[in-house]
Amino acid sequence: AMKRVLRDFAARLEHKSSDSTFLVFMSHGIFDAICGITHGDETQDVLPYDSIFQIFNNQNCSHLKDKPKVIIIQACRG
Prior knowledge:
- This protein has helices spanning 2-10, 49-55; strands spanning 21-27, 29-30, 33-35, 46-48, 69-75.
- It is an alpha+beta fold.
- The protein has a single domain (2-75), classed as Rossmann fold (3-Layer(aba) Sandwich).
- The protein has a three-stranded antiparallel beta sheet. A two-stranded parallel ribbon has the order 1-5.
- Strand 2 and strand 3 (33-35) form a beta hairpin.
- The radius of gyration is 13 Å and the shape is elongated.
- The two termini are 21 Å apart.
- The model has no long low-confidence stretch (mean pLDDT 90).
- It comes from Marmota monax (Woodchuck).
């Protein structure tokens, strides 16, 4: 679910006219990922940090190509 929301946000046409974007994530986390709202003992709901960077790279987020993207992650690391 988190990946879908991020992909939808990355594809927004409004980014064509923006100069930059800020992404702020606040969640529980594990070593290399943040936890989603359904993460628990029975359900693995995690989003690897690398997935965030990949979704917003110049190839996958062309409307923000060569524009600053500030990503702030406030999460424990497990």
